[in-house]
């Protein structure tokens, strides 16, 4: 039963999601890995990165090693990685599962394009991953969309 409680599968809290008093108590009593910055509390930073006119998009071992270095540069903890190579000259799809969330990649060598998704919570900084990946991909153009995921209403979070 304790294992289920640690996984969040059992709770003494009411199931009524409208009961914000119970939720506020949980927020005040537990340490979590949400981020508080600029007056906003949120789960983590999510980057969607497009590497255009890129190179080195068809070697899963090289991409795996680079994403591992990128995760370390961001301060993340790597739990598991899996990369798949589509045909000898095709693209690579893969993911690093992180204690802080994930980094995933899909490459299209025939289009000189790679799409990378990085989501990290806590003190990790996914922006530190970008230069590491750029060393390998040598992209002519890098486009980044950044999102703060899991925003918590400050009113609800503080109980005001």
UniProtKB/TrEMBL annotation:
Molecular functions (GO terms): adenosylmethionine decarboxylase activity
Keyword terms, alphabetized: Autocatalytic cleavage, Decarboxylase, Lyase, Polyamine biosynthesis, Pyruvate, S-adenosyl-L-methionine, Schiff base, Spermidine biosynthesis, Zymogen
Cofactor(s) listed: pyruvate
InterPro entries: AdoMetDC_C, AdoMetDC_fam_prok, AdoMetDC_N, S-AdoMet_deCO2ase_core, S-AdoMet_deCOase_pro-enz
Catalytic activity: S-adenosyl-L-methionine + H(+) = S-adenosyl 3-(methylsulfanyl)propylamine + CO2
EC number: 4.1.1.50
Cofactor binding note from Swiss-Prot or TrEMBL: Binds 1 pyruvoyl group covalently per subunit.
Entry PTM: Is synthesized initially as an inactive proenzyme. Formation of the active enzyme involves a self-maturation process in which the active site pyruvoyl group is generated from an internal serine residue via an autocatalytic post-translational modification. Two non-identical subunits are generated from the proenzyme in this reaction, and the pyruvate is formed at the N-terminus of the alpha chain, which is derived from the carboxyl end of the proenzyme.
Active site feature: 101, 106, 121
Modified residues (Pyruvic acid (Ser)): 101
Pathway: Amine and polyamine biosynthesis; S-adenosylmethioninamine biosynthesis; S-adenosylmethioninamine from S-adenosyl-L-methionine: step 1/1
Site residues, Cleavage (non-hydrolytic): 100-101
Subunit details: Heterotetramer of two alpha and two beta chains arranged as a dimer of alpha/beta heterodimers.
NCBIfam families on file: SAM_DCase_Bsu
Function: Catalyzes the decarboxylation of S-adenosylmethionine to S-adenosylmethioninamine (dcAdoMet), the propylamine donor required for the synthesis of the polyamines spermine and spermidine from the diamine putrescine.
Family as reported in the entry's similarity comment: Belongs to the prokaryotic AdoMetDC family. Type 1 subfamily.
Official protein name in the record: S-adenosylmethionine decarboxylase proenzyme
């Amino acid at each position: 039963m304790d294992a289920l409680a640690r996984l969040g599968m059992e709770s003494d809290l009411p199931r009524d999601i409208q009961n914000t008093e119970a939720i506020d108590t949980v927020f005040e009593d537990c340490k979590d890995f949400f981020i508080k910055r600029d007056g906003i509390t949120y789960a983590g930073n999510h980057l969607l990165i497009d590497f255009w006119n890129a190179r080195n998009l068809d070697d899963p071992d090289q991409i795996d090693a680079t994403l591992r270095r990128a995760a370390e540069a961001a301060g993340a903890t790597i739990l598991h990685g899996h990369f798949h190579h589509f045909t000898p000259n095709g693209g690579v799809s893969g993911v690093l599962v992180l204690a802080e969330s994930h980094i995933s990649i899909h490459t299209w060598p025939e289009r000189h394009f790679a799409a990378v998704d990085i989501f990290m919570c806590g003190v990790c900084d996914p922006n530190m991953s970008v230069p590491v990946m750029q060393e390998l991909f040598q992209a002519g153009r890098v486009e980044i969309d950044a999102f703060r995921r899991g925003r918590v209403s400050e009113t609800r979070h503080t109980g005001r």
